[in-house]
Amino acid sequence: MSDLRFGPGLGEQPVREVSPRRGFRLDKTNGKLMGVSAGIANYFGWDVTFVRVAWVVGTLIGFGSLLLIYLAIGLLAD
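Request: output the structure for the sequence above.
Response:
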């Protein structure tokens, strides 16, 4: 028989294909500044707002050190 599937039958969940991860990439189309937060959100499957808030809080708590890390990622990635 054939392995073709035409869709979910009764009581079956639809099959979702998951693309393999290629590695971290900046997401400049959905990004605000350099695409670092959007790229991290895409890589881990998180909401981009959560990542942006984490950057701001981390920068305030770390006396600006995360700002340097953000710039380094933005300049070195891709």
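Residues 39 and 45 are 10 Å apart (CA to CA).
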